[in-house]
Design a protein that fits this description.
Oligomer: single chain
Distance between the termini: 99 Å
Low-confidence stretches: 4-17
Number of helices: 7
Structural class: alpha+beta
Strand order of the largest sheet: 1-2-3-6-7-8
InterPro entries: DUF2911, TPR-like_helical_dom_sf
Protein name: DUF2911 domain-containing protein
Mean pLDDT: 92
Organism: Runella salmonicolor
Keywords: Signal
Length: 275
């Protein structure tokens, strides 16, 4: 009888152990994806908490390579060729390692995107190494955090924050040549994107006369589109034609009022006031 009881106890224990208990991860995983340039940047990483501990110079020693987070290596995926810290990096997935010190960090972009932390790290897999300044924050960041900030059409900063420390990893994409090639190709077909082309030329300091030519054609194609008329007014103003810009902005403003779009009414008012 005792043998039966013992056997049942063992079976029950094994069954309970196999069933397991689900609890929150101490360093939960986060994935963030940001549209960037002509593609995107995606980052997957774990978020340990400080929990009253001293982080940099203690839990994370100065001068030693770090997985830049917890658990698996922090993974970044670039959807197109970029420059990271000024170093060319091909589109693809990489691990972000770092060597923190008190005043600066050495950032390492490594091919080992699927490494388990430092396990599997090889220096020969490094594709970029560069240093960035370490900044002191006026507040405490409890959980290790990565965000994408300072976004423009072709640049962004991967920002790493924990405890009272922050670093920024600059990322730049060369999109101008690609977009110019698209515009040149698009202008050879029947349905020509005059508005988009004029907008790109205006926003990026290209030939203002060509931008005005395309803005005029965009207005011809969409004569009641107040946003197209507003773009023409901006182009005229940049070209130095203040009288023309004012007249065009007035037309755009009246169209916007009829469409009940207060945002464009205000935009045109500001444009006229600035002439």
């Amino acid at each position: 009888m005792k043998k039966v009881v013992v056997l049942l106890f063992v079976l029950f224990s094994v069954g309970a152990s196999a069933q397991g208990i689900k609890t929150p991860a101490p360093s939960p995983t986060q994935t963030l994806k940001q549209d960037f340039a002509l593609s995107s940047i995606e980052i997957t990483y774990s978020r340990p908490a400080a929990k009253g501990r001293k982080i940099f110079g203690d839990l994370v020693p100065f001068g030693k390579i770090w997985r830049t987070g917890a658990n698996a290596a922090t993974k970044v995926t670039f959807g197109e060729d970029v420059k990271v810290g000024g170093v060319p990096v091909k589109a693809g997935s990489y691990a972000i390692y770092s060597v923190p010190t008190a005043n600066e960090w050495e950032i390492i972009i490594n091919k080992g995107a699927n490494n388990s932390g430092l396990t599997g790290y090889k220096t020969e897999d490094d594709v970029a190494r560069f240093k960035v300044e370490s900044m002191q924050l006026p507040m405490m960041i409890e959980n290790f955090t990565i965000i994408l900030g300072n976004l423009t059409a072709s640049s962004a900063d991967i920002q790493i924050l924990w405890e009272n420390t922050a670093v920024q990893i600059p990322v730049v994409a060369d999109i101008d040549a690609k977009i110019m090639a698209q515009i040149n190709t698009a202008m050879t077909v029947d349905s020509r994107p005059y508005f988009q082309a004029a907008s790109y030329y205006f926003d990026n300091g290209k030939d203002i006369n060509k931008a005005l030519e395309w803005a005029n054609k965009a207005v011809e194609a969409q004569p009641t589109a107040y946003w197209v008329m507003h773009l023409k007014a901006k182009v005229q103003a940049k070209a130095g034609d203040k009288a023309g810009a004012k007249a065009t902005a007035m037309k755009s403003m009246e169209m916007a009022k009829q469409a009940k779009n207060d945002d464009y009414v205000v935009l045109n008012q500001k444009l006229i006031a600035g002439l």
